[in-house]
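User: quick one, sequence for these tokens?
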């Protein structure tokens, strides 16, 4: 089994002492990347939940030790060069952030640390109920690393765990707590006194803070984009931290908000350039400059003494972290689009990039459920994702890395911009050489707005697509519901909510006369409709001889070459939103208040079996009747085996309603499935499957774009049990991703069908009964039409006489 797609920016990375490696928190492991190639060279595996902190032990370049903390409640000490675990400390509380002042005070190796070396942790008190009125789940705790235990004292309590920031000198550390900054002074190594603390106030909520490397100076950013700088904080008095804890918690509702004039600081300066909240603040290593960044994706370089600023080139995504190395010419910047860029300082030129899978983006509510999430190239093992900046990312599921990006339409990114264009659909041809995209330009104040269909071509394995044809308003002013490629030809069908379908062909498919001009590009070959009903889904059969199009609640079957309606199947209770062929069977999926999965026999033109399941996605194996569905579990399900799970992956053979296998998963809403070719040349992980190349792999991508690949037909697949956790420090609730295998009967799903509601329809021996059923452009010739109509009148009269 192969896993990947994890976030690279859930926590700040850390450079090795020689700056040749970058340690990145990726899910439950710490991935070690080479700074010269930006490729992963090793991994530290051992944590069972999200790793939230990685701290490299400084000193001699020959040293290769680091500390990590995780939501599994453990602190671990590693030799990252040998990927060897040296020590584990279990505090039995989820750790959201960790700092170790001893590392910055010159005490490097674990053996060189003083008798009582301490770490300061931001943990979650899981015994406090989240919905309690004044539930304070966040705590700042002190941990004795030497004795592997908590020191017992609680430095602060907050509503939720906060990220701890520490000064480069190791003398101060602090947290933001709504409109306050709580700053502690690290006690001397021989001191037994409590940790001293001061509080700085503001009129807006803080988002980030940073300490000067040498001076008693702290900077903080707020939600409005302002930067506040306190100089000489704590010069007068540090209050006793234990008295504050005994007095109560640091809750804004219990303390009267103060003003900056009452803070223990010599002066406070305010700078303002960013239009939205500050995400990044960091002083330069020499302390002469302050770097800031936000949602607009611009890194601002402030001169500390004068307040003058200059701007570094736009990176194109909101900035999160800026990490320095011991090499003054190398730093790293982490972006919200799950990318880490290695920068050459001081020019800030990007030399290499670690490109992770793009994270999901939110589309407007009006288009909720109308945008397809993924398109797969099953031979190359690629997934095409719609990203927030109007691009399509091609990501290798086999190698867990980005292959390329395609800019569908241009965008001048500015923070707070309203979304004006949405890429709603992306579809790939069977060989992955062609792509079609649909974008919707939203109207402004009810004026304007249009739909654009684009065709792309690629002649390389790097998926560098070039735009071939643009079609504006392909279905008049109606939206496009589906786009499907012919399996063997350069032919595409698009269906619309306006009640028509169009078949598009490339100019290479159309025979040209010798004296005719050869035009390149795509053009409309045929148009079809059925009773003016909205066309909601479309799919070609495996050989391309049959085109299935859903006309709202019925399925229409077409001959794509002659553009003729062949048959009409069933009447569903809810609109059909997905069609897919599995061998000689056709699958239809309806969603809504009465969802249903139906399997239709193409040889009999009738329904074989169905389930009342809420299906999120479906995938069919090529050259067989196997298919897999991702079903959402009912919210009322209380089965113990489904605890914490919200979805099921069901593997079927279309000939049998009993599933072959079943797996429960997390974060299924918004997820996807795909069968990939395990014996393709792109797959280089045969050793994971016992040295053999599986014929097919099943890929599951969850709502956070994490994924797993496994052989669903392997007998050992039933024994697989994997739990992976992915949590966001800034989130109030923990989001988890897990995978566990289970077998058994389906949980109370209705297998009976109402044949009255699902009665198939096909041409009969009485042609006058179906003469006016179908597309208007496909009527019989007038003489034939009149003859059939007269026969119908004669039979009706005969029936009346009888």
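Assistant:
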């Amino acid at each position: 089994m192969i896993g990947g797609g994890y976030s690279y920016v859930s926590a700040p990375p850390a450079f090795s002492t020689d700056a040749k490696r970058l340690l990145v928190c990726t899910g439950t492991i710490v991935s070690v990347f080479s700074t010269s190639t930006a490729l992963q060279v090793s991994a530290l595996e051992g944590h069972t939940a999200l790793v939230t902190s990685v701290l490299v032990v400084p000193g001699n370049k020959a040293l290769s030790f680091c500390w990590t903390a995780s939501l599994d409640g453990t602190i671990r000490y590693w030799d990252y060069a040998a990927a060897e675990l040296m020590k584990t400390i279990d505090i039995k509380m989820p750790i959201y952030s960790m700092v170790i002042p001893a590392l910055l005070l010159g005490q490097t190796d674990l053996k060189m640390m003083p008798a009582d070396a301490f770490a300061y942790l931001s943990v979650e008190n899981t015994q406090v109920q989240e919905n309690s009125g004044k539930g304070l789940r966040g705590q700042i705790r002190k941990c004795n690393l030497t004795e592997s235990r908590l020191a017992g004292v609680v430095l602060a309590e907050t509503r939720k765990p906060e990220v701890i920031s520490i000064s480069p000198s190791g003398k101060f550390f602090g947290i933001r707590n709504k409109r306050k900054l709580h700053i502690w002074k690290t006690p001397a190594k021989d001191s037994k006194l409590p940790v001293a603390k001061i509080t700085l106030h503001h009129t807006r909520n803080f988002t980030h803070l940073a300490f000067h490397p040498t001076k008693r100076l702290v900077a903080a950013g707020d939600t409005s984009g302002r930067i506040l700088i306190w100089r000489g904080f704590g010069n007068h008095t540090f209050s006793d931290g234990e008295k504050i804890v005994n007095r109560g918690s640091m809750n804004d509702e219990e303390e009267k908000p103060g003003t900056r004039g009452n803070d223990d600081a010599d002066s406070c300066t305010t700078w303002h350039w960013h239009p939205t909240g500050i995400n990044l603040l960091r002083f330069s290593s020499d302390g002469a400059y302050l770097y800031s960044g936000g949602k607009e994706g611009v890194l601002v370089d402030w001169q500390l003494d004068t307040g003058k600023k200059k701007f570094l080139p736009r990176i194109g995504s909101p900035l999160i972290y800026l990490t320095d190395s011991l090499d003054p010419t190398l730093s790293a910047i982490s972006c919200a689009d799950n990318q880490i860029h290695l920068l050459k300082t001081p020019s800030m030129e990007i030399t290499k990039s670690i490109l992770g899978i793009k994270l999901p983006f939110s589309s407007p509510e009006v288009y909720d459920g109308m945008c397809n999430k993924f398109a797969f190239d099953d031979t190359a093992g690629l997934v095409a994702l719609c990203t927030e900046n109007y691009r399509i990312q091609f990501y290798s599921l086999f190698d867990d890395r980005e292959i390329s990006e395609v800019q569908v339409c241009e965008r001048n990114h500015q923070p707070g911009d309203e979304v004006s264009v949405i890429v709603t659909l992306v579809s790939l041809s069977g060989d992955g050489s062609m792509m079609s995209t649909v974008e919707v330009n939203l109207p402004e104040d009810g004026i304007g707005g249009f739909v654009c269909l684009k065709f792309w071509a690629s002649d390389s394995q790097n998926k560098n697509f070039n735009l071939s044809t643009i079609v504006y308003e392909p279905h008049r002013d109606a939206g496009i519901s589906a786009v499907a490629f012919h399996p063997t030809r350069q032919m595409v069908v698009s269906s619309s909510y306006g009640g028509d379908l169009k078949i598009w062909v490339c100019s290479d498919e159309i025979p040209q006369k010798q004296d005719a001009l050869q035009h390149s590009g795509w053009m409309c070959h045929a148009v079809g409709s059925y009773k003016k009903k909205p066309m909601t889904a479309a799919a070609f059969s495996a050989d391309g001889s049959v085109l299935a199009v859903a006309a709202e609640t019925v399925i229409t079957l077409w001959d794509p070459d002659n553009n003729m309606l062949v048959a009409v199947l069933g009447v569903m209770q809810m609109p059909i939103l997905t069609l897919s062929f599995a061998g000689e069977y056709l699958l239809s999926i309806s969603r809504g208040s009465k969802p249903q999965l139906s399997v239709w026999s193409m040889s009999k033109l009738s329904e074989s079996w169905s389930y009342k399941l809420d299906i999120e996605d479906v995938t069919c194996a090529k050259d067989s009747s196997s298919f897999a569905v991702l079903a959402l579990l009912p919210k009322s399900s209380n089965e113990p085996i489904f605890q914490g799970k919200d979805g099921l992956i069901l593997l079927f053979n279309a000939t049998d309603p009993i599933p072959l296998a079943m797996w429960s998963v997390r974060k299924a809403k918004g997820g996807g499935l795909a069968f990939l070719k395990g014996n393709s040349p792109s797959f280089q992980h045969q050793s994971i499957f016992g040295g053999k190349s599986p014929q097919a792999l099943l890929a599951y991508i969850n709502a956070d774009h994490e994924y797993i690949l496994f052989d669903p037909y392997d007998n050992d697949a039933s024994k697989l049990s994997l739990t992976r956790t992915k949590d966001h420090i800034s989130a109030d609730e923990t989001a988890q991703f897990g995978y566990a295998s289970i077998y058994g009967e389906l949980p109370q799903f209705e297998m009976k069908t109402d044949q009255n509601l699902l009665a198939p329809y096909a041409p009969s021996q009485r042609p006058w009964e179906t003469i006016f059923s179908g597309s208007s452009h496909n009527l019989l010739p007038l003489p034939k039409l009149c003859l059939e109509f007269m026969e119908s009148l004669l039979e009706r009269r005969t029936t009346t006489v009888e």
